[in-house]
Automatic annotation (TrEMBL):
Bias kind Basic and acidic residues: ranges: 31-61
Protein name: Uncharacterized protein
Domain of life, source organism: Bacteria
Record region (Disordered): 22-78
Polar residues: compositionally biased ranges: 69-78
Amino acid sequence: MRPYVVSLLSLALLGLPARPIEAQQRSGTRAQRDSVRRPSADSLTREQREAVREAARDARSISRRVQRGDSSTRAALTDAASTTAFATPEARAILVRARQAREVQDSALKSYRATTTQRMSVSMGARKLGLEKLLFRGDNVAEISWRRDVGVWVKPVGSRLTVPMASDVRGDMVSAVTIPYFPGREQLWFPSSDFGVAKTEVDDRDIIHPLARGAERWYRYETGDSVDIRLPNDRVIHLRELKITARKPEWRTFVGSFWFDRDGGQLVRAAYRMAAEIDIWSVASEETARELMEDKELAPVRDSVLRARLPREIYVKDSTRRAEAEKRRDPDEDDVPAWVSATFRPAKARLDAITVEYGLYQGKFWLPRAHSATASADFLFMRVPFRLDEKFTYESVDGDFALPALPAARNRFASGDSAKADTTGVDVGGSNATVTMSAGGSGNERTRQRRDSVQASVYGAAKVRQCANDTTWTRIENRYEGAVRVAYQLPCDMKQLSSSPVLPPESASDESLFDLRSQAELVKALGLSLQAPWAPQMPRIRLGSDLLRYNRVEGLSAGVEVSQTLGAGFTARAVGRIGHADLHANGEFALSRSNGARTVTATAYHRLAAMNPEWAGALTLGPSLPAFLYGRDEGFYYRTMGVSLREQREQRRGAVEYGLFLERQWTAGDSDVVNTFSLARALGNRRFRQNMVAEPGAYAGANMTLTRLLVERPRGLRLTSIMRAEAATGTFEYGRGSVESTISSPTGPVAVAVTGSIGSSVGRVPAQRTYMVGGLRTVRGQLPGTQGGDAYWFTRAEVGTRRGAVRPVAFFDVGWSGSRKTFGQIQPQRGTGIGLGLLDGLLRFDVSRGLYPFKGWRSDFYLEAPL
């Protein structure tokens, strides 16, 4: 898979710097395939193998140029596309000036000193949108110095990696620091090293840059608003907005709002996002197919180049061994196995928004002032949001200051004598490099290696060698596809970085560090109306684990999904399913429009619904596993048919979802379930409890769910809340509402969490909309639906060890449900037990004991607990 794809997926899935993953990928998929086709090491000398590799690289370059077509062909295609690319002549003129500014940049700038402040946060959760727990957070503060005649020096003055669930964290985040400017730097920012250097022309194998030459084939351009900025010296900067939209919804393209200096063409600020979300398995398959096609077209070119360049003996050896290896190669080894792509669903990622802001310095130099990016990924039952913010403060722009030269590279194949001399150099290895120092006659090297083995395992041997005689050490990295060599000046005691006073407190909010209001104003431009145009794509039909479920009514229910991206932000999705036990067909058709953070969906449906979906119901794969394995279904169900219109908005600290519905409801019953099977029943004759009986009726109504992350301190207090409300009229008129809040915090050697929830109603509530208390999500140790009524309350308390990677937990629950008229008059349920949480409660196993009214034992494995 191409490095830029790996960079993007690693960003969206984990939020991690992509270079190590890229390096692994380069030595992985493609390298494994080449290793099969390449002659073994004993058939050619090292010099001969290097000659073969050099010829192969040149052949690949020739093949790619042939595949892209000659410059005249590309120019003709671009000219043809230009007739429909621009809404007005002014839009064309703005793009032309922007391209000139992007390619020429400012050669007059000779130096700068800047301080960068950066925060990267990655969270992870299982169920509740907007309430994901912090997985890790990286804070960086670094001083960056650049001179045109020297290069880039980075002096990290603070770097902290916070992992709330871990007790010991090693390593640093200094390599994630963005270099604000270097000759050839890309104006548009993307959190990946493959997007750091400006490329003049579009490369249709990569992400399609909206400002590169030839981009008219993929984008449309129209002018927007204009703004005049008056400087203190009465100079006026005229800004003009250029709205850029992809011609079709494709994840390699962008939509966005870009503001340029109308006179100079310099980018001043922008907000943009990808035109479509990424289906990870589809992208992987497409990229593999593309690479195989390129390799097929490369083969004759490679053969011709090697035949012309190499001596006949070497050419024959290489060709013979390669042909033999090709015969042994499995043609399907590079593709994603079908069972993997079907099982690990959903697997998708999206980039919601990127913002960039530039500032004018010395009245003539535009330099980056702030960047931000938000992304998220959904994989199996996990949702992984990612957020990155950074800002730059310039102490000197175009000033005259001294800067030492970057250390020179040292030949890795230097002779033993030269290696013993006192030297300072760079050991270049792959895309990274490390400064090393060695001294002749160093004495007992083995003893020193034992003493410094821990440091060497984390930071490499270069640090150990340099710190033997100094308090600082230097690390060299080749960044931005090797375009820039960066020297990092680091303290020998790396712990100084994590405890530096210049770092913001761990509890400092993003709002206190960055100008989030300015970012929010930019992101407003990425509304539902700014979309790729209507351009229906091919429908996709799929099966997958996320379309399987198992419950007391349907038994095993399998679904088939047909989806189609339509363009203009619209996606159509149809799902049909049938259960093996009730043989009742269900289906729904949904038409949604989304810009990532906001989604509006209209749905027509005939489906099975859960009575308390916020607490129970095996209508997804995760809750279905206990029902299948040991016959324990936490849900009660009824059938419904109707239409709904819903809107979901993701917010920085939570989410809100509200909608209207018109539907008919009736009982699902047990009478139709004649052959429900569970593994527990097959082994021990354990049967499901009876389903609740629903009251038939027709209703029109509205509902809303608001989730808020009120307080989040990485190693301290965390406070969340969920508010739900519903009102309907029809067969009965009713309203119901509830609030649930969880507070958790470490206290000394332990962590404590308390959840409280209360709800009530007005009017005549149908049986299927009452509150059922008892069971895994309310009072553990009790049976689901032990009590039910139109009002409820429950409290759950947990205490466990402070660190949550693997956490023993003890808990106690108490709760009640019944008629609101008897609130507080009936003895509540109670249960207690112990559990084991993994990954800060993402996975949890409990053994509970009912105390009242039922006094039995039960065990549960489930997703997402407070501790």
